[in-house]
Amino acid sequence: MILMACAFAGCAQKGQQASSVPTAAPTQQAGGEAAPEDKYAKELTITVARRGDSRAVEEDLFSPYVKEKFNIVFEITDINNNDFVTKMNLLLASGEAPDINLDQRPEFMLNEWIQAGYFRGYTQEEIKNLMPNYYAQYTEEEWKSIWPAISYSDGKSYYFSSRRANSIDMAWLYREDIFNKLNLKFPTTTDGLLEVMRTLKKETGKVPYVSANSGDVLWAFTGFLQVFGIPELAPRELSYVDPVSGEFVPYAFTTDTFRQHVIFMNKLYEEGLIWQEFATGTTDQVNATISQGNHMIAWSYPSKIESELNRLSRNENPEASWVWAKDMPSSNPERATYFKANPYYNASGVGFSADASDEVIERYMAFMDWLHTDEGMVFRTYGIEGVTYRKEGNNYVFMDHMTSPLKSEGKTLTNYGFVTGGRQHPNLNEYYYPHLTELEKTFFNRKGYYHFISPVMAYTDEESSELADITTSLQQTAREYYAKFIMGHLDAEDDKEWENYVSTMKKLGLDRFCEIRTTAYERSNR
Fold first, then answer.
1. Which residues sit opposite 338 in a β-bridge?
2. Do the Cβ atoms of 113 and 119 come closer than 8 Å?
3. What 8-state DSSP symbol labels residue 119?
């Protein structure tokens, strides 16, 4: 556990948009005493769970700056990504739950945690009153689709995400240097994709696609799910609406479409076209494998080309050059080609512990609300002016010693102790990520290209409780079979073995799961 002290004093009144930019920490009155009107005079300790590797703090600028604004002492627990759910379960079950969870997600057993009473829920009106700046990041029209998607049968939400910085940020990427050398074009069909990957394997002796997710193997090949017309976010959302037919699919991982995806992935596995450790590999192992010259096609973020993919690939070949593809592959391009459009909100949101005191929650909400002012967004995105960033006209630019979207070497804000959620400042994309505009122009409103829109489903208390138990069993079993099918331990092309998988899922409550989800979808979308 890393302890970070930070205090808050002199925050803008709720509902007011702060306009100043952080340059140096404000000072207290002589003698260090708080001003009489300071509503944060009492120091509070707030425990926080953060999902991610342990931070290497070299110089803490975060705590001293925030220390003067809210009078909080943060106790931060860093939890490795792959261990997050397991360790959170232990903390919650032992009564040692942190006051704040920075990475609350529905797929992280949120339904079960809500049923157990571990977290506080809030209505839309309560959030509007408690955190007006947070609330104002979305328009009322946007809230009409957001709130039904994040709220539960009691009319409350239990996680609160900040606005995503962009409407599209993922694409297929490829090694342009190798493609040019071999006179290859990025494929638009699954047959073409298979042939390109075979050529890459034959000509380089390397593995064309390297990916792994030991925490949840269903996330290992989400780009390939999308190729077959299954949403990239299916491992989280489970249900989807086909954007071509309008058909509601209550469960993604037992359909004929999923079966075809699994058969294709098994073919890639058997031919050594995907990394064999996809179900057990760690992030470090993936990076080491890429650094050896493997990985020439990726489903990822173009923003990672310089900071990650080129950096790793150039360990083996200094001339390595990744670019993003202007096309998407499809298993049936005559029907549809799919791309991923982002929801309005981030995947992770802030969760408030039911065991935390009212004053702790109120204080953290004040901090969280401030992070959604212009001042707060600059602080959480860029840090301290003159130290981590500088102003160039209307743009915020990271200092030369800092990493940036254009430079992978240097210090990061975590080296200066920053641990914040909140909303990314819009100027970051405008200055550093012009490709995001090009992505939008390339894929949105393109003939034959479609994206998924998350279905709105509101459940009753009884439905939520029943779904929680069924979902856990279904997903655990789907993960096990997915890995076995891909690795050839089971044959998805064998009708008997596939039917056995579906039968096993039905014994775990698949039919009831589909019935509840279909009922909720039809009720919510009349």
1. 450
2. yes
3. B
Contact 482, 217 (CB under 8 A): yes
Distance (Å, whole) CA 65 – CA 194: 53
Of 169, 172, 149, 156, the C-alpha closest to 221 is 172
Tokens of 291: 């650094």
Q: Is 498 left (phi over 0), alpha (psi -120 to 50) or beta?
A: alpha
Q: Tell me the three state secondary structure of residue 199.
A: helix
Q: Which two tokens stand for residue 358?
A: 């009212």
Q: Hey, what domains does the chain have and what are their CATH numbers?
A: 2-164+345-424 (3.40.190.10), 171-338 (3.40.190.10), 461-483+496-524 (no CATH)
3-state DSSP assignment of residue 248: strand
- Global confidence as pTM: 0.70
What are the DSSP calls for 321-345, one per residue? Answer: -EEE-SS--BS-TTT-EE-PPPPSB
Relative to beta strand 44-51, strand 72-79 is: parallel
Using H for helix, E for strand and C for coil, what is the string for 457-523? CCCCHHHHHHHHHHHHHHHHHHHHHHHHHHHCCCCCCCHHHHHHHHHHHHHCCHHHHHHHHHHHHHH
Q: What is the pLDDT along the chain (526 residues), one digit of tens a residue?
A: 333 333 322 333 323 333 334 444 443 433 344 444 578 999 999 999 999 888 899 999 998 888 889 999 899 999 988 889 999 999 999 999 999 999 998 888 888 899 899 999 999 999 999 999 999 999 999 998 899 889 887 899 999 999 998 889 999 999 999 999 999 999 999 999 999 999 999 999 999 999 999 889 999 999 999 999 999 999 999 999 999 999 999 999 999 999 999 999 999 999 999 999 999 999 999 999 999 999 999 999 998 998 899 999 999 999 999 999 999 999 999 999 999 999 899 989 999 999 999 999 999 999 999 999 999 999 999 999 999 999 999 999 999 999 998 887 899 999 999 987 899 999 998 899 888 989 999 999 999 999 998 888 878 878 988 998 899 999 999 999 999 999 999 999 999 999 999 999 999 999 999 999 999 999 887 7
Sequence-ordered list of residues with C-beta below 8 angstroms from that of 151, at least 6 positions apart, any chain: 124, 157, 458
Q: Which residues lie below 8 Å from residue 387, measured CB to CB, with a gap of 6+?
A: 61, 399, 416
Backbone angles phi, psi at 243, to 5 degrees: -70, -15
